[in-house]
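Catalogue entry: protein

Sequence with per-residue tokens
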Amino acid sequence: MRLEAESQSWPIRGGFRIARGEKRAAEPVVASIIGESAIGRGESVPYGRYGETLDSVLAQIRSLADESAGPLDRDGLAHAMPHGAARAAVDCALWDYEAKTGQRSVADGLHALLGARPQGRTLQTCFTISLADPDAMARAAAAASDRPLLKLKLGEAAGDFARVRAVRAARPDARLVADANEGWTLDDLHALAAPLAGLGVALIEQPLPADEDAALGGKDWPVLLCADESVHDRQSLHDLPAAYGAINIKIDKAGGLTEAALLAAEARQRGLQLMVGCMVATSLAMAPAALLADAAEAEFVDLDGPLLLEKDRRNGIVYDGASMAPPSPELWG
């Protein structure tokens, strides 16, 4: 076995804007475990919010490749690398390699970690509406008429109620999720929570900056609050305010499918609802997340990354509106 890594660039259709800025391309890192009879691959996206860059993630993976003596394994990987995009890419590549060489299926591995296995369900994913002015977001929502669950990128509090109201008028049928991406203050949340509940918003994701979460306390808010930037791995659950009733699990920030599955299991023990989310990436990154969402029976699935790209990779996940089929073995696992 040998470990290799490369960066890639996949153009985004029309750009993608959140409270922290805009991007025009998805730039994932792909790790490959290369053996005599098979290649296992894993994809993750470095995230500047956590101090990651393409160069830093590639350097971590290549350093691991240089230092590794003997076969890599997922247990050893968790001790060799911190959580984050580098470990996520290698961990997912190991899962894929194990499945492709007949060592252990992904279903069996998830059963060992979760006590449940993927059932091959068709998942219903959120579709993301990028942050823009209210009319533009309403037009985007109307154009997505075949997508019943919309995730609205917010974070500019002065205009966020108008944005959601415009989307609701354009799509009275849709279920709505609001993602502030740490862009609000506590006063903003107090001002917006009840009005957004009145518009039928089902969940507000990461309203405050992660280091200000303590201000949420144990208050029972009018809308379900979901932690994203505040939760990476199991360790980060310990400081989560009681106000959060859900967490967004992303394989990239957890450090791979292994830790993401263990995080899902512990979150369930704490009575939390689950969202399984993604960065903007190709189907290679969605595949392990989709199997996790299926096995963990996540209440919210946000795996629309490939739908935001100009094109996806070969053997990509098949989407029919908001419905996503299970990934094919040719793609991953």
In short: The two ends are 17 Å apart (CA to CA). The mean pLDDT is 95. The longest helix spans residues 85-100. DSSP finds eleven helices and 16 strands in the chain.
